[in-house]
């Protein structure tokens, strides 16, 4: 089965009414803001969204599900001084919209004052270009694909994987997804932001071996434009190769070893750092990195930059969830934390100013200090390469880290055999300082762009020697 991805011209389809739909959402937002003002709100904000998509799942050459989705959401938030109320609806009938605003106002009138409540300051609002069109950073690539075509792509992916190696005994299925979203955020400062984006994916999970010796692994590709996806057959073959490579795993003796986190799991370490320096955790005093701005958290060569304006970035945007202008910035420079990750509300709770991160970060890039994965394996020499993490054993308050892991044992800078059923443990503060290298082998499937990360020493719990 030979199935290829479409050309750029084929992706767009015959017509694209997204700008007209954004215009309608913007007009709706203005009407809702006017209604909130008429009902006595001192400030108000509105979020309107439309999403549509096609999702397909196949298994063992047969179709399991085909689902077309179309969703809409409208949320109205009003402020009466420092009192806040929010209500939402998916119904565009005029009486329903008016009722939604009225509900938000009623809630606000019955809540307690919150000193941190309210819109961001007007002078912090992002300003659109002179033509009034917000930059899109090449993130809009709709795919006019029919359900039978999507099914064929998923089947081709799974078939290529199943045929790759005779040890592939079963399949957990292949999937295809394509979706688009439109969003308008508006507030009573006069700000009206408009965004549209697309996202497409193909993935496959396979099973090798039998009985107690079975191993499951997979691979997937995700992109904003269909033409940037990996070939479906290549995805299936890579899923097969990853699956059979895990057959006949061994355990390790419990001990302390260097641990190299492959790029597809290394971004979770950056995610733990983000969680600890984000406003919600900080003002709740639920972070192991309280009072950490300006302190050395990582080696002096380590850096993380935020890049909101990347072309085809997964989280590119000119403004955040509060309408505040985003900006390029260094989150970590020379191993030192430069600032927290704050939206308007959390910043006020902490007595600080927003960093333009309401709703999260926008495209993080972790600086590399070495070469690709093979070079990192040679540099490590002996230790554990982790390719999968399991469980949620991370304590956000203390930083204690303990997660199930699978991967490969490395000797002489080369993979020796697969490893399963081990636990890697440490404390995130110590782990961050013990990072020895970041590779150039960046996994492109996330807004957190990092290569593999080598932590010089961690506890690996495996077999306990008998007395």
TrEMBL record:
A GO-annotated cellular component: cytosol
Record domain Metalloprotease TldD/E C-terminal: where: 254-462
Family: Belongs to the peptidase U62 family.
Domain called Metalloprotease TldD/E central: residue spans: 141-247
Name this polypeptide is given: Metalloprotease PmbA
NCBIfam families linked to this entry: PRK11040.1
Keyword Hydrolase: yes
Keywords assigned: Hydrolase, Metalloprotease, Protease
Organism listed in the record: Montanilutibacter psychrotolerans
Residue ranges of domain Metalloprotease TldD/E N-terminal in the record: 44-108
The keyword Hydrolase appears for this protein: yes
Gene Ontology molecular function, alphabetical: metallopeptidase activity
Gene Ontology process terms (BP): proteolysis
Gene3D superfamilies membership: PmbA/TldD superfamily
